[in-house]
Design brief:
145 residues, alpha+beta, Thiol Ester Dehydrase, Chain A, ApeP-like_dehydratase, transferase activity
Length: 145
């Protein structure tokens, strides 16, 4: 298992904006992560005392970043930062997530990759029930390593 400190070293999202607490498993074909911070009253995405289901898209995008960081690290490098440019086929099945008592879990898999872009599918569950799923695309910044 890979913990939060190792995740923080892999991605640009720092402090409370790093949404994942641990990597349960990963390989080149995908990643499985877990988070508990959705219940935190100080969560940086909260507004009006709630953390809304739409924020699960950010959890999905950060799953991509963690996977990219792990893949780059395995090849002896570091991942390029990315900018989220599109969400497609997103289904969010809950209005809010701050009231969910258990951990959030996510699986994500790369669907398409080019030198300067990536597209992933993500699925987020709570207590074995899918609460969000979709596809996210990022444009990678900087030069190709």
């Amino acid at each position: 298992m890979i913990g939060r400190e190792q995740i923080l070293a892999l991605i640009p999202h720092q402090g409370a904006m790093c949404l994942w607490d641990e990597v349960v498993d990963w390989d080149a074909a995908g990643i499985h992560l877990r988070a508990r911070n959705h219940r935190d009253r100080a969560h940086p995405l909260r507004s009006d005392g709630q953390l809304r289901g739409v924020h699960l898209c950010e959890y999905g995008a950060q799953a991509m970043a963690v996977h990219g960081g792990l893949r780059a690290q395995a090849q002896g490098g570091t991942a390029r930062a990315g900018v989220l440019v599109a969400l497609r086929g997103v289904d969010v099945h809950v209005a809010r997530i701050d009231d969910l008592p258990g951990d959030l879990e996510c699986t994500a898999q790369p669907l398409a990759e080019a030198a300067d872009s990536q597209q992933y599918a993500f699925r987020i569950t709570h207590a074995g029930t899918v609460i969000a799923e979709g596809r996210a695309a990022v444009v990678l910044q900087g030069d190709t390593p």
